[in-house]
Amino acid sequence: MTSAPPASPRPLDGVRILDAASFIAGPFATAILAEFGAEVIKVEQPGGGDPFRRFGTPTARGDSLAFLSEARNKRSVTLDLRKASGVRIFKALAAKSHVVCENFRPGTMERWGLGWAELRAVNPALVMLRVSGYGQTGPYADRPGFARIAHAVGGLTHLAGMPDGPPVTPGSTSLGDYMSGLFGAVGILMALRHAERTGEGQEIDIALYESVFRVLDELAPRYAAEGTVRGREGAGTINACPHGHFPCGDGAWVAIACTSDKMFARLADVMQRPDLVDAYGTTAERLAHRATVDDLVEAWTRTMPRDEVVRICTEGHVPCGAINTIADIFDDPHFAARGNLVRVLAEEVGPVTLPNVLPRMSATPGRIDHPGPALGADTDAVLEDLLGLSEAERATLRGDGVI
User: Fold this and answer.
1) What's the pTM value of the predicted model, to 2 decimals?
2) Is 230 within a domain?
3) 3-state SS record for the chain
């Protein structure tokens, strides 16, 4: 487990992002950019702040471990955007920023006087990332959306589960939010590049369901060409065999992926069953006898512990990996060697272990300076340094409930 690296210049130093988003998708996009030097000012409602602060396992400070991870490297400013003074301050901050991020339901920012037209008027080079369940346009635009809904509408949930069972959540994490955050970060970087060249900002419209739909490999072109509706395939796939999850003798599981005849021949070799190549040497033969082939592989993996299966397959150049729990990951030497876990200090909480920064950059690596901040920790500093608001002015705003 690694500690945070020493300070060094980063590629997004000097970029300022005003992050009014909540929960995961928008904030994940800005957290990625914050790791690489962007100054991210997280704007939160006075009193409660981002509801994500209370989502998941609470810490001694009251903020959840999930929030500490996904609000990394940000500054927290409280600001009530439903009040005229809050709107005025937000616009003033937007005028001094390069990016604004929000993920309210479409029309919310416009009702507050903070829509794209209003913000662009105060900063023509501004980039605005807007994340919502269904996007800013279309007949579903006003519907609320979360990752679970995006998985369903985008076509992923229908694929998840056993063939004879109900559709299930594809993993227990908010996958659609994280995918949308990645697309959002890419969009921001491209828009910033355009703004540098032209002085013109732009609006980035990301719908959670679209991020999910974009990663469904051949589903769309195959349906258009053949009318095929792919269903749930369980642990395997209709395109390759053996290609799934197999139990081992110690109760643990492995994933094995044989996507070609050559891969299967290697597996037959490590199983010491060369006769399997004669019987099932082609993909067509294996797919026609999928249950038999999978049963033969399972009978073999059950004869030894998981680590032995992985070792034998690896030595025989067969793609195979342990199906890890998080406990396995913390003990895995490869995760340790790659520094995939980083231990950082959180104010009022103590040491917190987080997933490390991605992507890896050889010349300008990102880093985690600190986990998510306490609510409003930077309000005074930001309003004084960026907008020149005096202590008396801030006291008035605080008394009025604006900050």
Assistant:
1) 0.93
2) no
3) CEECCCCCCCCCCCCEEEECCCCCHHHHHHHHHHHCCCEEEEEECCCCCCHHHHCCCECCCCCEHHHHHHCCCEEEEECCCCCHHHHHHHHHHHHCCCEEEECCCCCHHHHCCCCHHHHHHHCCCCEEEEEECCCCCCCCCCCCCCHHHHHHHCCCHHHCCCCCCCCCCCCCCCHHHHHHHHHHHHHHHHHHHHHHHHCCCEEEEEEHHHHHHCCCCCHHHHHHHHCCCCCCCCCCECCECCEEEEECCCCCEEEEECCCHHHHHHHHHHCCCCHHHHHHCCHHHHHHCHHHHHHHHHHHHCCCCHHHHHHHHHHCCCCEEECCCHHHHHHCHHHHHHCCEEEEEECCCEEEEEECCCCCCCCCCCCCCCCCCCCCCCHHHHHHHHHCCCHHHHHHHHHCCCC
